[in-house]
Amino acid sequence: MSDRLANLPAPLEAEGVWKNVFSYHPMDVELARAEGVHLFDTKGNRYIDASGGPMAVNLGHNDPRMRAAVEAQMRDFAYVHPVLANRPRAALCNAIAEVAPEGLNATYLVSGGSEAVETAVKIARQYWVGAGKPEKHKVIACYESYHGMTLGTMALSGNAATMRPFDPMLQKWPHVRQYSDHLKPAHLDRDEWAVECARDLERLIHCEGAHSVAAFIVTPHGCGSEYGVVAPARYWEEVRRICDEYEVLLIADEVVTGFGRTGEWFGMQHFGVAPDIMTMAKGISSCFLPLGAVTVSDAINEVFRAGTPFIHGFTNGGNALSCAAGLQVIDIIKEDGLIAHCREMGERLFAQKERLLAHPTVADARGWGLFMVLEMVESKASREYFAPEKQAEQLFQSLALKNGLVFYSTLYGARRRPLFRRGLPLWVSPPLTISASEIDELVDRLDRTLGEWERMLGVAGV
Ligand SMILES: Cc1ncc(COP(=O)(O)O)c(C=O)c1O
What we know:
Layout lengths: L2 H4 L24 E5 L2 E4 L4 E4 L2 H4 L8 H13 L10 H13 L4 E7 L2 H18 L7 E5 L8 H6 L3 H4 L11 E2 L13 H19 L4 E6 L14 H13 L3 E5 L23 E4 L11 E6 H8 L14 H16 L2 H14 L1 H5 L4 E6 L4 E5 L15 H11 L2 E2 L17 E5 L7 H22 L5
Parallel strand pairs: 3-13, 5-6, 5-7, 7-8, 8-9
Antiparallel strand pairs: 1-2, 2-3, 4-10, 9-10, 11-12, 12-14
Helix pairs in contact: 3-11, 4-11, 8-9, 14-15
Bound molecules: pyridoxal-5'-phosphate.
């Protein structure tokens, strides 16, 4: 740590060192260092990084190979304007093409997930203009989805509560429901219900006018109340059929599911359905450095190659250090067999889900790979989360910290009201490098945390 950091006044509280940091409310724990799946605070306490940051840290923390790769690049050059050819950018795009679904080969580099989604939407729009269908401009997304925090991506994310303050500034995109196991009528099987859910997209395209719809953006892992729900492949096949029939581009937002998190390189590979455009961030660099990317199909690329100039660009898109980090992440995932390891550790995690489901506040435990989402509720009967005034999320976080677990939390339960009352997702998504004993330790600590939380909240049946 530099002297400048070491000499900051303690304690780190609102009126101390944080006073010049805008809109940021840290927990009491201050991070000192991180190693593997562990985080260490300034008092020497050890925590498991149970959600891998925000489902983003796919490698272990502080991997020396990452440091070496970035340092090596730094010795050559850290940055170059995109008008000059540079190998780190080319090498990363080649490496992404090798692992991306077949037919998706050309990549545009950016600095994060929101930028990737903005870029994907602009590519979709310009593709249709270039392809001679300039009326196609609308982008359909799912209710309660999350695609980022810029004005453009917030307009796509279908959460009225968070959008409200920005309402006059947001484009009003059409939204559609997503696949839901919870709402499935008993007389339909999952596949029949999947087709029903997908056909809502078809109905919406009809209502909007297919001539005006450019794209449908969707996450492979569900969203909001259905976060972590793995829809049947039948849902995705039907979505693909609909998109093809009405000439609507399918954008898979793989910001969370990309780079091995679900036990495949990308979430859509589980379903055997390829999107036209794929967005990536988070695990692409394991957050060692800011990086995001958009990969497009050859058919889309063709229109731009034929002369449509893409009106876009960010100063730090394709920053050489970020490229070096992304390239090294892909190499490490391959060298260490992390996709297979993720599947194996995921099986071990999911084999223990009954222990978690035995809690009255855990209504569901779902997902794949090392991506388990618990649906946390006040009661399984109502399937609703605690009222905001109970401060249940804050309490859960502090108990988890006491028990040596750091969970990602948006502390956004309150912000979902009044529209969304259903259970709140808790992400169990540690780095893919986690060992079997660390998985068991994580589940033990989580089990204990849930019990203490329920007792303190006075949950019935504890
Ligand atoms: C599915 C999805 N898309 C986009 C984003 C935005 O990514 P970023 O926070 O890097 O801008 C997120 C962030 O959590 C996400 O989960």
